[in-house]
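Appendix C reproduces, verbatim, an entry submitted by the partner laboratory led by Prof. M.T., so that reviewers can inspect both the input and the predicted structure.
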Amino acid sequence: MLYLHYKFWRQGYRVYQFHYSSLFKTPAENAAKLYQFISKIDAPAIHFVAHSLGGIVLNHLFHIYAVNKAGKVAMIATPLKGSAVAVYLNKKKYFRYLLGKSIIKGLLGDGPDWSDKRKICIVAGTRGIGVGWLFAREVMQKPNDGTVNLHETRLEQADESHEIPRSHFLLLISNKAVKVILKFLSK
């Protein structure tokens, strides 16, 4: 997220980076920490930009807490409907530990439905090699970003959806993704 942090800061945004443990805390527990984190930010509006599991944490945040500040949400490669790769890896004894508590009401697809009314932009990748391609190729469907299948990122309530020919992690340093999100936030 450092590249995104820098790019948004260069455009005049005050940027706050939230760090969380995907192995030792559930998405709901991380949402509680995020709520405390944003409660200390003195601003009339807070935009949220999340990658992958971070979008699931945001989903829990808005499902559990009343976030009264205005703002928009951009999710990059977030499997809001669950991850076929995570389901597959969770069935394998040695890979299950790599997922940690991120699977609890999260990556397995049993998280809450998106219910917040704020404007949302989805950015998803359509090309690349990733964890799914390497370890769970049989559950990868085209198109995908090497880790998340494109259809897993879909959200009916989204105001915008963009597909970028990048892998799951290269989306984090994609200038096209940055441009899409900056344009969305400026509207």
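The two ends are 23 Å apart (CA to CA). Additional entries are available on request from the coordinating office.
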